[in-house]
Amino acid sequence: MKITLIGTAYPYRGGLASFNERLMSQFQSEGEEVEIKTFTLQYPSILFPGKTQFSSSENTNNFPIERCVNSVNPFNWISLGRKIKKENPDIVIIKYWMPFMSPCFGTIARIIKSNKKTKIMAIADNIIPHERRFFDSWLTKYFVGCVDAWIAMSQSVFDDIALFNKTTPRSLCFHPLFDNFGEKIEKDKAQKILGLQNKEINILFFGLVRDYKGLDFLIKALSDSRLKEFPLHLTVAGEFYESQSKYDEIIAELGLKNITILLTLKFTTMSKKISRADFLKTSGAGLAAMTVVPNNVMGAAFGHKAPSDKLNIAAVGIGGMGNSNINAVKKTENIVALCDTDWAYAKNVFNAFPKAKRFWDWREMYDKAANEIDAVICATPDHTHALVAANAMEMGKHVYCEKPLTHSVYESRLLTKLAAKNGVATQMGNQGSSGEGVETVCNWIWNGEIGEVTRVDAFTDRPIWPQGLMVPKEVHAIPETLNWDLFLGPAKYRPYNNVYQPWNWRGWWDFGTGALGDMACHILHPVFKALQLGYPTKVQGSSTALLTDCAPQAQMVTLVFPERGKKDKVKLPEVTVTWYDGGLTPPRPEGLEPGKNLNMSGGGAIFYGTKDILVCGCYGVNPYLVSGRVPNAPKRARHVELSHGKDFVRACKEDKANRTMTNSDFSEAGPFNEMVVMGVLGVRLQGLNKVLEWDGANMQFTNIKDDETIKIMIEDGFSIHDGHPTFNKTYTDPINAKQFVSEMIKHNYREGWKLCDMPK
User: pLDDT, tens digit, for every residue of 318-372?
Assistant: First the structure.
């Protein structure tokens, strides 16, 4: 839809301009084609009582604003009307607030409407003005006659429209709260800036000071004898559109100027600032102090982006899931920088965003474009997630990171703490966490619908890429479009072979985490969330042939979690979670309908409760009880209205002090991912032939002895001689188990790559 708004906007200031710009931003975020046509002359200077009509800030809007409306020039009205008529918008919106604008707006609108297509919608702040003049009614009638539909911002205005036209459609939409005031300031800091005392009862008058606003009544009320016992302080934040002397006289008449302890009257303008010492000197003389509320107090200078603003997003790893992540937000946000080590794989994304800066190395991108970036999308191979995300958060950038969140336990812990330390919005790319399936599973379990859960079985039908492979011996030529060294990143160097890249890296331990890391973040999330799991205490893994460099074809992992108290109506006893992949599946639950496939969207999870059994698919989809009963449980889990990606954008734009976390914020995704990569540890340590005991708080196994060793298969050779099979298995020399485990928990990065320190 093509929408044109006619009215006040930048470079003009005030609430009308803020409203119009915010409205256009919202339309734009919804994919509409929008523009604003604002004034070259809004009010003749002789008719404007204030200091200036213009804003002192820079224009930050990302939609067209054309200065082309002259409020007092009929020739301009005719020419502009004809111009917009030819542009043929679907809707013209006019923000109407006073009869003075009726001839201008009414004439332009009538000419536009002659195209027989464009509809005129008016958003009315006032129909009958606060300060009335004898010609108001005539002017208002002229404008009302061209309007096809009305939106009234208050009940009184809604009723007033009917005084002029009872047939035109009208709707009541109360004036929204503005969401562009910036980040909340700590109370003590704000009080210090404003010169307020915590012991005072502070009253605020905010807005332009005009007669009809009633500031004089407020001052008179403060003289009431019943208020003498209270330490009142009145702050007036706004510009005087009339003489201040009137208010000075009221203060003097009522004897308020001498009440400097119980009542201090501090008038605030937006024009000049005097020092705290000057203020105290002035108020001590019994005068009303003139000071300024700094821009940051009013919310414009703390770096907080209002939802009307677009995020500037950089993406690292854009050829695969990164492309999908970008597509989820590209219509509403700005894609300003793109980074990938494979420019052939990323070509289509580069071409889709020709204005975005291009980089091979995300470190260079951060160095050169950090000031242009608000948020980072990371969709690189697993082994570089932590580096990309950690450095972004240390710069104060919001982070969306693909699953699995990290490659190791230590990295997960680090990202969890960095997110908390830096106060940024975060999201892991397990999109099912924002879906109704996970929400429903949580609601049912927390309401006690299946009783206490002591066992969960989960599985996936992946891998869908080759696993269980030996290291290729052939060395291929590195394509010119691939920076192989940057792809390897912190992993040890290995010669290039096209088996690793661009997608099959998932099955190689140095780069990925196999089917478990790929799909457990989707399938086990409802398990982790609904059962309020934390760190496991025990882990045990088994698999098909386990090789040094490549994940096995199929594996099974068992994790034990301790008792966790209670959640709403259900106790959370010790629970055993078992994972299957590579074609392995758990036993079918007793009572399940024969022939019913447990695999939904790539896998599933089975919750065994003391009252019933709950089954859901991958992403938590299609949950049901084996008994056939459909619970009617109250809604306890957060419901996400937006898509997974847009919910992340929403969180980025919210004030961090009042932010609603995403459903896979790193405070949850971090500990959850530790569970996932713990499963990988269980598989890779199966050669120890024991149940491993885990101390989650300290990130260490407690039952691996100093002298224990482990051997891992290098090659699984096979040949036939005289019709008989010969198996030639080659193993590593014995490896110290503790050293091996230590490196898997916290990786030793290749030279040139380093994580930031773990926050305390």
Answer: 999 999 999 999 999 999 999 999 999 999 999 999 999 999 999 999 999 999 9
Please name the residue that has the structure tokens 């889709």. Answer: 352
Mind giving me the DSSP string for 630-678?
-------SPPP-S-HHHHHHHHHHS-GGGPPPPTT-HHHHHHHHHHHHH
pLDDT digits (tens, 9 = 90+) for 89-145: 999 999 998 888 999 999 999 999 999 999 999 999 888 876 677 678 889 999 999
Position of tokens 């809004």? 42
Contact 733, 711 (CB under 8 A): yes
For 364, phi and psi rounded to 5 degrees?
-65, -40
Q: Is the peptide bond before 404 cis (omega within 30 degrees of 0)?
A: yes
| Burial of 497: CB neighbours in 10 Å, binned 0-12, 13-18, 19+ | middle
Place of tokens 């569970």: 675
Q: Is the pLDDT of residue 182 over 90?
A: no
DSSP output for 328-347: HHTTTSEEEEEE-SBTTTTH
Domains and CATH numbers, the chain: 2-172 (3.40.50.11930), 187-292 (no CATH), 312-428 (3.40.50.720), 433-471+500-692 (3.30.360.10)
The answer to whether 3 and 33 are in contact (CB under 8 A) is yes
Minimal CA–CA distance to 563: which of 552, 551, 571?
A: 571
Distances (CA, A) of 27 to 1, 15, 118, 348: 9, 18, 17, 28
Measured distance between the N- and C-terminal CA atoms of the chain, rounded to whole angstroms: 52
And the tokens for 419? Answer: 């997110």
The sheet carrying 232-237 orders its strands as 201-206, 232-237, 263-269, 289-292
Q: Please, what is the Cα angle at 138 between 133 and 144, to 5 degrees?
A: 115
The encoded tokens of residue 276 equal 């705290």
Q: Which amino acid is at 628?
A: G
* Cα 229 from chain centre: 47
